[in-house]
Amino acid sequence: MSQQIRFGLVRPVLALPVLLASFAASGQPGEVTFHRDIEPILQKICQNCHRVGGVGPMPLVTYEQAPDT
Ligand code: HEC
Predict the structure, then answer these.
(1) pTM score
(2) Å from CA of 55 to ligand 1 middle
(3) Ligand 1 pocket by Cβ (under 6 Å)
(4) Which class for 17: exposed (0-12), middle (13-18), buried (19 or more C-beta within 10 A)?
(5) Which protein residue has the closest C-alpha to ligand 1 atom 28?
(6) Per-residue pLDDT tens for 3-42?
(7) Ligand 1 centre distance from Cα of residue 10 (Å)
(8) Distance, CA of 2 to CA of 55 (rounded, Å)
(9) pLDDT digit string (tens) for 40-61?
(10) Radius of gyration of the CA atoms of the chain, in A
């Protein structure tokens, strides 16, 4: 299966925390940054598995590793 098709599936999954983060950032809607809003979510619930050497198929630790939405 090509990389393009695989990332087509990844994007909607990562869009969810982006949407949740934009609701959670009370008082400052609109501006969502990876470092402030997304990274803590990934760290809390994804990086147990999605890190180098983890059971997940790809790491989700840095901005470069997370597919963009
Ligand atoms: C309990 C461990 C665990 C956690 C926590 C976890 N994952 Fe996964 N994830 C996996 C494993 C294992 C696979 C591979 C499943 C397979 O290939 O059948 C996977 C696969 C995926 C895939 C599909 C990758 C592909 O190209 O096929 C995505 C996207 C993904 N995870 C995103 C996330 C996100 C986003 C989070 C946090 C919200 C998360 N995962 C949390 C273990 C985990």
Answers:
(1) 0.59
(2) 8
(3) 6, 10, 13-14, 45-46, 48-50, 55-57
(4) buried
(5) 10
(6) 555 655 555 566 655 555 655 555 556 788 888 888 888 8
(7) 10
(8) 22
(9) 888 888 777 768 777 777 777 7
(10) 13
